[in-house]
Structures are given as structure tokens and as C-alpha cells.
């Protein structure tokens, strides 16, 4: 099935470049373009894309606010933020708003296309460098804030899996590290998503940080 993508970036040159990359890919199509956050929200309502590739800095409504509106209205569309890396506030704000992925604009083309496919399939993806910055941000707080009361419901093994997810491991890496089958790793992640009420893998990462399971030394 073809993945339908909406591009949201205020720079037409960036949109054109991304469209050229996507148009050369048989399983992904661009169904629309937006130059502002408000346009991105409106076109998501109109076109119902599978994935919205969202810039942060746009005139008027920015990408974080647009992401929050799109995810709050329970559209099927999932958001991948693709932006020049600025601050931890932007990263955390995007993920908190409901983005399922965060990539910097120096990501290679294969990585960009992979992110679209991963997010469209219901998983989530963040750049490794972004993961490290998020860890540093949370670790920099004076006192860890375990604002995840549901964590009491997880098993010891699930807590171990959550820690590894917080370090940025994929299901394949989890399986290899824990010496379990890929299906078992996937089942553990699915259980964590359910127990913690997390939207996707990115929000499991946030839960791991907030629970103090991950630190910069990990």
C-alpha cells in the first residue's frame, strides 16, 4: 500500500527537494504541501495523509502547535518532525505534542524514507543524537520526576525493556541484547504501550526519562 505524505515547510526549495526524493520512491506519494502550520492542519483534515513531515519554524502557527492540533483531533495521520536542530525545548515540545518521529535536516535520504515507513507502520523513530540530547535534558533536572504512576504495573522484564527503549534500541536490538525472539521483544513493547497509555515508541522513551531509568552515562 502506498504511503500518503503531506509536506509542511515554509521553504519551497526544501519542499521541492523532499518531493523529488519521495517521487522517486514507489511506495510513498506526496499528496499535498503546506507552508504554514495552519495550512498543515487544514490539509490534514482535507487530505487525510498517513504521515505529515513537519518543520518547526514556520510563520504564524509553528510546527509544534500544528502537531498538537493534528494529534489531538485523533487523525490517522502521524507526524515526523524534520527540522534544523535548535534546542532541547523544540525536541521535547515536538514529542510532547504527539510527534511520532524527530529528525534533523542532515539526516541522509535513506534515513528520511525509513522514518516515513517506520512511522506509517505505527512505530516511532528519533535520531540517535536527539535521544542523547533528551537524556541530557531530563538528567539535568534537580530531582528526577517519576511522573509515571503506571510504572508500578509493569513487570521487572518490562522495566528492563523500557530502559533499553529509552536508550534508543529497536526491537531487533532489544531481542539481541536480551537474547529473546523478535516476536517476544515486540510483545514486551506492545505491553508497555498499553500499560503506560503511550501513543507510540517515542512516548515510551519519554516515560523512561521521566521515570529516571535512563541517564547520560547509559
Characteristics of this structure?
single chain; about 220 residues; alpha/beta; six-stranded parallel beta sheet; 6 strands; about 50% helix; globular
Strand portion:
5-15%
Q: Which structural category do the helix and sheet elements fall into?
A: alpha/beta
What is the helix/strand order?
EHEHEHEHEHEHHHHH
- In DSSP terms (H or I, runs of 4 or more residues), the helix count works out at 10
Indicate the mean pLDDT.
83
User: Largest sheet, if any?
Assistant: 6 strands, parallel
Which strands sit side by side, in order, in the main sheet?
2-1-3-4-5-6
- Molecular shape: globular
Cα distance spanning the termini: 39 Å
Q: Would you count the extended β strands for me?
A: 6
Multimerization state = single chain
Low-confidence stretches: 142-146
Helical content (DSSP H or I, runs of 4+): 40-55%
- How large is the radius of gyration? 17 Å
Description:
This protein is an alpha/beta fold and 218 residues long. Helices cover 50% and strands 13% of the residues. The chain has helices at residues 12-23, 37-47, 63-72, 88-96, 109-120, 128-139, 156-166, 171-178, 182-196, 201-210; strands spanning 3-8, 28-34, 51-54, 78-83, 101-104, 125-126. It has a six-stranded parallel beta sheet with strand order 2-1-3-4-5-6, sandwiched between helices. Helix 3 (63-72) packs parallel to helix 4. The longest helix is centred in the last third of the chain and has 15 residues, at 182-196. The chain is globular and about 50 Å long. The chain starts with a strand and ends in an 8-residue tail after the last helix. The model is unreliable at 142-146 (pLDDT under 50).
Amino acid at each position: 500500500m502506498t504511503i500518503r505524505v503531506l509536506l509542511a515547510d515554509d521553504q519551497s526549495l526544501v519542499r521541492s527537494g523532499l518531493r523529488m526524493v519521495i517521487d522517486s520512491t514507489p511506495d510513498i506519494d506526496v499528496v499535498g504541501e503546506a507552508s504554514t502550520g495552519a495550512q498543515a492542519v487544514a490539509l490534514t483534515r482535507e487530505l487525510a495523509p498517513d504521515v505529515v513531515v513537519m518543520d518547526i519554524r514556520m510563520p504564524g502557527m509553528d510546527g509544534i502547535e500544528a502537531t498538537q492540533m493534528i494529534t489531538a483531533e485523533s487523525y490517522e495521520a502521524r507526524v515526523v518532525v524534520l527540522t534544523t536542530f535548535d534546542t532541547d525545548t523544540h525536541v521535547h515540545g515536538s514529542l510532547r505534542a504527539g510527534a511520532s518521529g524527530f529528525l534533523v535536516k542532515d539526516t541522509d535520504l535513506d534515513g528520511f524514507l525509513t522514518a516515513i515507513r517506520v512511522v506509517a507502520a505505527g512505530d516511532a523513530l528519533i535520531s540517535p543524537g536527539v535521544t542523547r540530547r533528551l537524556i541530557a535534558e531530563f538528567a539535568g533536572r534537580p530531582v528526577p520526576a517519576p511522573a509515571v504512576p503506571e510504572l508500578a504495573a509493569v513487570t521487572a522484564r518490562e522495566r528492563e525493556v523500557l530502559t533499553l527503549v529509552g536508550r534508543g534500541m529497536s526491537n531487533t536490538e532489544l531481542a539481541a541484547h536480551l537474547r529473546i525472539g523478535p516476536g517476544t521483544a515486540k510483545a514486551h513493547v506492545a505491553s508497555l504501550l498499553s500499560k503506560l497509555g503511550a501513543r507510540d515508541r517515542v512516548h515510551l522513551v519519554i516515560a523512561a526519562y521521566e521515570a529516571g531509568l535512563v541517564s547520560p552515562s547509559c
